[in-house]
Design brief:
globular; 529 residues; mainly alpha
């Protein structure tokens, strides 16, 4: 029964993974024509404000929905669930309203802190997205808490399609009309709330259909419960567990937000002109879609396993809880480490394919290490949240963000964007270390048990060597000639060879347990091969 439940969770993870993968592919693909049309300086303008959009989207897509899915999984009746969601919607409306007003009316101050006062109208434009958070977060939390991942997945893909369409139309108009970069940025950021409305529409249809199904299944009216959670209790959990989960889900976005306030200013202090600083910051910002793409699968597993972990913990089933938690850590590492390794090995080809040159390869390769670190942090966070140990996660996050702020001040002035990448990696490593130190003994051993860590490093090492040799033999001409089409072909070849080599290695050295293989979709088929 437990394995069946685990498989259901894994299937849910696959649905979210596929949706997130499609969304990230769209996110990476639109950046190619967008960056080509608006240039590095235009890309800088867009990316400076992107963290504010990213925080809103994280709250609406993963932060509060994951937290709400946990609360929904803890309810025992339909009426209790309905009351919970109603109160959650009211509290989120207050929370979002405060954020909207604060950002909209402080836009001038925020732009000044970022070192570029012309960013004010772009900040005001993106602030409208916060008003859509209550509906987006509540509906997604409801579906995920009842183990129905499809509505969240469809809304995510639909939202991304709408956003990409608006951005590319804006970029085209920018090339045709005499707009400056800031007018383009304002119009491009209007895609945030336009896409949010599309997601609301999709989720609204899904809720309407679900309500009709519920009415057919429950013809008798349900009695109201006296034991439902009060506003005070829910609010307390929102501002402890919920906010912590949002902050951890938005970890990389928060790092980018720190960069928005410190990197451009630091480059100016280093002696660069405003044009050079914008150009270099635009190149540095290429790392974001690459890292997000690498984290897709691992993040989806963390999100999908939280309800199962919460149920096991609530039922005091320690054996099931730690078995699931250990599997989560191992499976997350198994997806995240080869993704990190592969992106680093293929970086010159990826960079040329997506952005038309190989500028910033070293900076982007270093930044890509955050795929592994952030994925493991997300897994630890999922486990801590399901145990109601949100304080551990919050403390580690605050320490890490503090380190990032301090190191950016030193490193950027001395090493430029390479220093900012290094500051991000050091900060994430410290967060992971603090979480590991505060975790139970069973979790500390999860990546070391049965030589799991060594087997994973060996498998990734073999994969890296094979991919490097192949790319040296066939791929160098693409870099010399700067052919994007050839680089794209070699990237695909390298990825396929790398995945094949890695799968062969982990099967041969028995990296995952039989239970873990069987819980993965297609796991049985892979084992037969």
């Amino acid at each position: 029964m437990e394995n069946q439940q685990m498989k259901k969770m894994m299937n849910g993870a696959v649905i979210l993974s596929v949706a997130a993968f499609i969304a990230k592919i769209l996110s990476a693909v639109y950046r190619v024509p967008f960056q080509n049309m608006v240039g590095n300086s235009g890309f800088y303008v867009y990316q400076q404000i992107y963290p504010i959009y990213g925080i809103a989207m994280t709250v609406a897509l993963s932060g509060f929905p994951i937290f709400l899915s946990k609360l929904v999984a803890e309810t025992s009746t339909t009426q209790e669930r309905k009351n919970l969601l109603k109160k959650s919607f009211v509290l989120l409306s207050i929370f979002s309203g405060v954020f909207f007003l604060s950002i909209y009316f402080s836009a001038s101050l925020i732009a000044t802190w970022m070192g570029d006062v012309k960013l004010e109208p772009i900040i005001q434009t993106v602030s409208w997205l916060f008003l859509l958070i209550p509906f987006l977060a509540t509906s997604r939390g409801y579906f995920q808490g009842t183990f129905r991942m499809l509505p969240t997945a469809v809304s995510q893909v639909g939202e991304q399609f709408a956003r990409v369409a608006v951005i590319l139309i804006v970029a085209y108009l920018y090339t045709r009309n005499q707009w400056d970069e800031y007018q383009m940025g304002t119009a491009a950021m209007s895609s945030s709330w336009a896409a949010g409305l599309v997601a609301c529409f999709i989720l609204g249809i899904a809720l309407y259909k679900q309500q009709k199904t519920n009415l057919r299944q429950n013809s008798k009216p349900l009695p109201s419960l006296n034991g439902t959670l009060s506003y005070k209790t829910i609010a307390k959990r929102f501002f402890t567990e919920g906010v912590t989960m949002c902050l951890l889900s938005a970890l990389l976005i928060l790092m980018q937000l720190i960069d928005s306030f410190t990197l451009y200013n630091g480059l100016l202090e280093k002696g660069l002109s405003t044009f050079e600083a914008k150009n270099i910051k635009g190149i540095y910002d290429r790392g974001q879609p690459l890292v997000q793409l690498g984290m897709v699968v691992a993040t989806a597993f963390s999100a999908s396993l939280i309800p199962l972990l919460s149920k096991s913990f609530a039922q005091n089933n320690k054996a099931a809880f730690f078995r699931t938690a250990q599997s989560l850590m191992r499976i997350t590492a198994t997806f995240a480490m080869p993704a990190t390794t592969g992106i680093i090995m293929l970086m010159p080809y990826l960079n040329l394919t997506l952005f038309g040159d190989t500028d910033g390869n070293m900076v982007l390769s270093l930044y890509s290490v955050s795929i592994l670190l952030t994925s493991l942090i997300g897994a630890y966070n999922a486990i801590f949240q399901s145990q109601n140990k949100h304080q551990n996660a919050l403390v580690s996050l605050m320490i890490g963000l503090g380190i990032k702020i301090v190191l950016n001040e030193w490193f950027v002035e001395k090493y430029g964007t390479l220093g900012s990448s290094g500051a991000t990696i050091v900060s994430l490593f410290v967060i992971l270390l603090v979480m590991w130190f505060n975790s139970p003994k069973e979790l500390k051993e999860s990546l070391l048990k049965n030589n799991f860590g060594w087997k994973l490093v060996l498998s990734c090492g073999v994969m890296a060597i094979i991919v490097w040799v192949i790319m040296q033999l066939i791929g160098q001409n693409a870099l010399i000639e700067e052919s994007r089409l050839a680089a794209f072909g070699y990237t695909l070849v390298g990825a396929v060879i790398g995945v094949g080599a890695f799968l062969r290695m982990i099967i041969k050295c028995n990296l995952l347990t039989l239970r873990e293989w069987l819980s993965l979709p297609f796991g049985k088929k892979l084992l037969r091969k």
